[in-house]
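Changelog-linked ticket: protoporphyrin IX containing FE example.
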Amino acid sequence: MTLADDFGYDEKKLKEQLDFLEITPKDCAHVRALADSFASFREYFT
Amino acid sequence: MKSNPYTRALLQGEGRLERLKKSQEDYFSELIQGKYDKDYIEKRLRVGQVHQMVGLEPIYYLAAYNQYVQITFPKFAEAFSEKNQEGFSSLLSLVKVIFFDIALALDTYFKTNTFALRKRNEELQRALGMYLQSQRREEQYRQLLSHEIRGALPPPLLPWKCYWRKRAVA
Ligand code: HEM
């Protein structure tokens, strides 16, 4: 039993939450682009 | 985190700060992978659980998160200054996934507390059940005992008195 199971995070709930926050595949692509184009990204966080 | 006495105290311990730096590096790197599946959720919930276990109050987690946002967003804006609209959209997307992250962290606090309260409630219910049962047993025992004591006493004298009186009259 994982924590996600314990907390009821099945595929349906996960999708629901992403929908609530309006996180679309476009947003995923955006943040990925952010990571890719900002090669030294890690340095800014550490 | 080192300047605040509360968070400084939590960071004491062999190699803790170093481990935390590395953990946070991975954490933020995963945040922008754009992959929010069950594995991701599992890792996020686990971090929330570790925080709860070390006794980190949610406000300190939020304060640290906010500090990172304050430090990094101007740098993002600077890096994207030429690609204005694209950079702006990326930042808005980043804000969404940060909210998702925070929602998961808070969920761990709420759920863990709810589970703990439910468990304590069940224990109390069980204890109350046992107490009531022992009360019932005690009452049954008391009734049984008084019954036996009554049974062991000699018969009441009154009928004998009446018998002798009847005989005398006769
Ligand atoms: C932006 C906010 C924060 C993020 C993203 C974050 C992330 C993490 C991660 C990824 C871990 C490792 C969890 C694991 O071992 O599975 C961790 C552990 C921990 N965090 Fe945080 N954290 C944050 C804020 C804080 C704050 C403000 C404190 C207060 C001092 C704190 C204290 C700790 C401690 C003590 C551990 C356990 C370290 C160890 O012994 O390995 N965290 N955190």
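Closing comment: Example verified and attached. The two ends of chain A are 34 Å apart (CA to CA). DSSP finds four helices and no strands in chain A.
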